[in-house]
Amino acid sequence: MASPESSPRKAVGFVSHIPSGFLHFSSVSKGVARVLASTQITLSPKDSAFTITGSSWKPDLDSGSFSDDPRSDEPNLSDSFSHLESLVTGGHKPNVAHSTQLLYDLCKANRLKKAIRVIELMVSSGIIPDASAYTYLVNQLCKRGNVGYAMQLVEKMEDHGYPSNTVTYNALVRGLCMLGSLNQSLQFVERLMQKGLAPNAFTYSFLLEAAYKERGTDEAVKLLDEIIVKGGEPNLVSYNVLLTGFCKEGRTDDAMALFRELPAKGFKANVVSYNILLRCLCCDGRWEEANSLLAEMDGGDRAPSVVTYNILINSLAFHGRTEQALQVLKEMSKGNHQFRVTATSYNPVIARLCKEGKVDLVVKCLDEMIYRRCKPNEGTYNAIGSLCEHNSKVQEAFYIIQSLSNKQKCCTHDFYKSVITSLCRKGNTFAAFQLLYEMTRCGFDPDAHTYSALIRGLCLEGMFTGAMEVLSIMEESENCKPTVDNFNAMILGLCKIRRTDLAMEVFEMMVEKKRMPNETTYAILVEGIAHEDELELAKEVLDELRLRKVIGQNAVDRIVMQFNLD
Q1: Do 436 and 447 contact (CB within 8 A), yes or no?
Q2: Can you give the pLDDT at residue 130?
Q3: Residue 23 to residue 25: CA distance in whole angstroms
Q4: Is the separation of the CB atoms in 88 and 94 below 8 Å?
Q5: First vs last Cα of the chain: how many Å apart?
Q6: Of residues 207, 273, 264, the one with CA closest to residue 239
């Protein structure tokens, strides 16, 4: 296979080889033709149950085909949906509570098209959908980028006499803002005002956040001035958004000036306002000003929160002031506040100590952490992994990991697998390989899941040749041949960088080695085609795969909604 790091990019990948009658081609890369040819293989029920979860272009394969299927209740959801549909089509009125719960369950399972259908069935049977459930569905659609579907749903509901409220419309405004469509959002709000709906402080906050992200904080300030001139009444949240904008642009002094103007504007800063400024000052190393600000946080709405303490710990550790950071950690559980300390609070300190190679202090800090019943998490393992940056400290890093495994009294194999997966997920694949070497010397036998994590990690860091080498090593192994999931990880990595042509080559290799493609494989490839903006082709391939019954309706619905393939 050609290396993606070095090979020239052909037009739009394998798509450039596909004539208009795609079902009849057998051109250079064999691409889609080979995909469709492979569908003559019958999929097992287990394989066909898998889909890639999530509706943004970052499918979480850890919660899909790379682990046990978390959606074991899908058959029950399908049965419940079929029952509701047969009831309504038979002229019966369904139970409101049951229908509403089904709506929530379908949303949580990311089966939004069916959730929309539930609303339609309820309306057609004369049932008034619960307002909060209806708004929840609109919100879920917008969060997943399906704003068009959400707007169509709202229009349909209004046509049937179900007026929407400001909360529902705010979900649409937020969805448009998340898509980077500030102009569209502003026009939409104007139309709402013409209909007699008044925007509230949350509406303004969404618009202001979109404004500073798209056009800069100065433009967001102008927008707020316009809102006020037109009679809008922003609240403190709106000003906190502007504070965040200034801080993200590195304009600490401007942020501080606005902060001090809040009382004159009729607002009293709360703990969120203080935390925004505190993070900015600490990042800049302006410790005296940070201390003065802390002194003002004397109770009420501006009393320090656990976020305040974590800001201090993170900043102090980042600047190498680990002793002071540890002192703040101790203070967290003293006095009137007594916040529960978690790994999130310890991790920055551990990371800094590891970066400095201070193994004894790392061990001491971890012992204190365990003593305080703080369970290590992904951040902890990645912090320890940074010890591997010191060539002489790799064994010490492994001994620390080994000690954590013993102290937590868990299965060593599962613990090591979790550590490798955590490192790879955060792009620390070099440390993962170094620790894996030490682990294997102590009897750890990597399984297919571990290899998938390594492949994903290498792809994440752009090392596709290395990822292919992992597959080759597995092929030569007697104990752990590459599985469908390992090939899927490689295919996904290539599709994410718009190299679907190379993903097709991996697919061909997979079929040649008699690894049965599953629904996840086909879904990744269709998303890869769509991700290259070849939406018509993606739709045709998806329709053909559905007709051949190698990809289920749930996956079809999700991909159709994700890329607007209707």
Answers
A1: no
A2: 83
A3: 6
A4: yes
A5: 34
A6: 273
d(CA 471, CA 500): 18
Q: Which two tokens stand for residue 164?
A: 């929407």
Look at the pTM and tell me if it is higher than 0.90.
Answer: no
CB 109 within 8 A of CB 77: yes
Burial string for 400-429 (b: 16+ CB within 10 Å, else e) reads bbbebbeeeeeeebebbbbbbbbbbbbebb
CA–CA gap between residue 357 and residue 390 (Å, rounded) = 7
pLDDT at 18 over 50: no
CA 549 centroid distance within chain: 29
Domains of the chain by range and CATH? 69-162 (1.25.40), 305-412 (1.25.40.10)
Contact between 200 and 170 under an 8 Å Cβ cutoff? The reply is yes
Q: Which two tokens stand for residue 258?
A: 């606005």
Q: Which of 29, 27, 32, 39 is CA-nearest to residue 1?
A: 29
Closest CA to 435 of 489, 399, 473, 480: 399
- Nearest C-alpha neighbor of 256 from the set 278, 285, 238: 278
Residue 30 in this model has a pLDDT that exceeds 50? no
Confidence bin at 479 (pLDDT 50/70/90)? confident
| 556, two tokens | 């079809």
Closest CA to 241 of 227, 230, 132: 227
pLDDT-derived band of residue 50, with 50, 70 and 90 as boundaries? very low
Spatial contact of 145 and 113, defined as CB atoms under 8 Å apart: no
pLDDT of 195 reads: 84
pLDDT in tens, 197-213: 889 999 999 999 999 99
From the list 242, 251, 324, the residue with the least C-alpha distance to 284 is 251
Q: In 3-state terms, what secondary structure has residue 442?
A: coil
Place of tokens 């304009």: 251
Question: How many angstroms separate the CA atoms of 86 and 491, rounded?
Answer: 40
Could you give the CA distance from residue 270 to residue 281 in angstroms, rounded to a whole number? 17
3-state percent breakdown (helix, strand, coil) of the chain, nearest 5: 70, 0, 30
* Non-local CB neighbours of 53 within 8 Å, separated by 6+ positions: 59, 60, 63, 64, 70, 110
What is the mean pLDDT of the segment spanning 233-260?
A: 96
* Residues in Cβ contact with 157 at an 8 Å cutoff, skipping those fewer than 6 apart: 119, 123, 134, 164
Taking only the tens place, the pLDDT of each residue in 336-357 is 667 889 999 999 999 999 999 9
Q: Identify which of 207, 143, 196, 199 has the alpha carbon closest to the alpha carbon of residue 171.
A: 143
